[in-house]
UniProtKB/TrEMBL annotation:
Entry's EC annotation: 2.1.1.33
Keywords from the UniProt entry: Methyltransferase, S-adenosyl-L-methionine, Transferase, tRNA processing
Catalytic activities: guanosine(46) in tRNA + S-adenosyl-L-methionine = N(7)-methylguanosine(46) in tRNA + S-adenosyl-L-homocysteine
UniProt keyword annotation of S-adenosyl-L-methionine present: yes
The organism of origin for this protein: seawater metagenome
Protein name, as recorded: tRNA (guanine(46)-N(7))-methyltransferase
Alphabetized Gene3D superfamilies for the sequence: Vaccinia Virus protein VP39
NADP found in the keyword field: no
Amino acid sequence: MVRQHVDPFQSRYQELIEIPNWNEIFENSNLPILIDIGPARGKYLIEMAEKNLDRNYLGLEIREQLVTKANEEVKEKKLRNIHFIFCNASLNFIPIYESLKNRVDIVNILNPDPWYKNSHKKRRLITLDFVKGLYYNVKNGLEIHIQSDVEELIKDIDQTMEFFFEKIGDDFPVISDREKYALANDETIFKRIFRKKIR
Ligand SMILES: C[S@@+](CC[C@H](N)C(=O)[O-])C[C@H]1O[C@@H](n2cnc3c(N)ncnc32)[C@H](O)[C@@H]1O
């Protein structure tokens, strides 16, 4: 059984991963790349990779079994422009981003876990420390695409992001696996596009 949630502060999720050799992972590692933080099983990301062979896709997911399954599908489909990595993105995003030089142009964070309880809020992906880290390490113009079906969470995300990023839109053409479920159940999805502010 795949666990619904994992506590990112447990010691097994506190490790920095060894950065892969991207030339061995992607057929053409010079293509622009989209990083998706928390893709879960990542079916939507695989569909995007199949449709857009002129870019690379990288999913960073903290639940190892889902990463194994997603990479099995990638292998079966013989796709060479997508890969999933098991890691805690809160710690590993920046080193991975840096290793990809300036090729990352979009970062997706789609339906991050809301961790409702006050005592669990520090487990959220989009915290002020994480956003500050993004701001000081990513290039000007980088777009962060965020969505959630939890209004309270998106309000909190707006407040946190707007310290360092400007909101430039509220739609983008990706329908994630969680979003498909939300739409089928008549739930509202809130989408945001943020871009790094030039100071
Ligand atoms: C609600 S699911 C959304 C899945 C997908 N993005 C979608 O919209 O269909 C959130 C995912 O983020 C992952 N996640 C949470 N914290 C993470 C972290 N620190 N690093 C990597 N993945 C994380 C969870 O394991 C989960 O699979």
